[in-house]
Design a protein that fits this description.
The protein is of the alpha+beta class. It has 10 helices and 23 strands. The radius of gyration is 23 Å and the shape is globular. The structure holds the ligand Nc1nc2c(c(=O)[nH]1)N[C@H]1C(S)=C(S)[C@@H](COP(=O)(O)O)O[C@H]1N2 and molybdenum atom.
Length: 440
Amino acid sequence: MFTSIRRAPEGFLSQSDIAAVRTGRRSLLAGVFGAAMASLAQTTHAQTKDDPNIMELPAHTKGLGQGVASPAYGAPSIYEKNIVRRESPGLTQVTQASVSFCPLQSLFGIITPSGLHFERHHQGWWDIDPSKHRLMLNGSDEKMLKRPMVFTVDDLMRLPSITRTHFIECGANSGMEWGNVAVPTVQYTHGMLSCSEFTGVSLRLLLEMCGADFKRGKFVLAEGADGSSMTRTIPVSLIQSDEVLVVYGQNGEMLRPENGYPLRLLVPGVQGVSSVKYLRRIELGDMPYATKDEVIGYADLMKDGQHRQYTSIQEVKSVITSPSGGQKILVQGQHNITGLAWSGRGKIKRVDVSIDGGRNWREARLQTPVQSKCLTRFQLPFNWTGEMALLMSRAIDETAHIQPTYAQNRAVRGSRGIYHNNGIQTWQVTPNGEVKNVQL
Ligand SMILES: Nc1nc2c(c(=O)[nH]1)N[C@H]1C(S)=C(S)[C@@H](COP(=O)(O)O)O[C@H]1N2
Ligand SMILES: [Mo]
């Protein structure tokens, strides 16, 4: 069977494997993961002489293909079946209140296909009838918002739209790495990250239509229509720049139900939890709301045991998506190191790549256009001659923030946190071509 580096093994860690990893050392993973690696068949080199793929005419050159509109809504090739979102029984609770991770190792460019966008539902997802969905804007008192209004989805679509490409990253992405758990693949280390072209209406415009008093109104509360009570406070300073959108479109079509159909908030650069799905209400008030999930969750546990609240910006970060953990480099010679960089503060300015664990760095090539608060694809050629390598990427954003090392992060934040880990990821390439998660 032919396999390529894009097709990461499907059998990831089980609950008991993870228990072993949690209590033990990183070296355990070799054993745990070895079995999955063994199932990867070796590639065959294309040989021009007597290659049946050249010499024999396949059926598709001789017969009649399939007709149009079957299926009426297209789906990926049957050969792409293992490029899917995955849950991680060992890492997160598998219930409706759960997470699916995006297969970053298999994607190109910067756009996440809508069907592969990671999911984080605190109370399961719903497919809400757009003709019945309403968005209400009100103030915490009568003067805050002169004309409280209720919009239908159609009402919103009659207003001028804004289309922009932005990433959404859960604040807990890469969270296990704080505790030095060697999560095996980039899908699980960084896969609570996705990027879409979003279309919607400026929240500032809606607030202005309602006669918002921005002298007193400094914060809004965003509320979803699901049962999770994921209400979030968003500072008006972010909203005034036209950046915060009430979104209905994702990659040229309506939002997917899993991602908040028919309406979601999008707060670019801020941890995913603020991009409230199934958005049904916006309230303007004069102070932060300190809601449930701003107190018991999404607060950073610091080294001294205190918590840091409202650290919502997703700081500069990058990761090599290929070669990455769980993949196997099948042949020596020319390869392409590629990955993603992003910053919640603006554009990516530069990405450096190291193949020797950070001793030497080379500047990677960035895919253009580089956009603000958006994924940026980088790449660098890599000639693998069969020796051990330690692959790292380090991003720098336009505000001159530099992605820190794990040691730097831990010196300030300790190792018991979950949120906002933007440390430099290291992938070890072993002499037999296996790629593993190590921490330097
Ligand atoms: N209504 C509602 N909005 C929500 C959530 C939720 O559970 N319910 N989860 C939040 C979290 S924690 C994240 S990371 C993002 C995930 O968005 P996605 O599922 O589209 O990837 O949605 C946020 N908005
Ligand atoms: Mo999240």
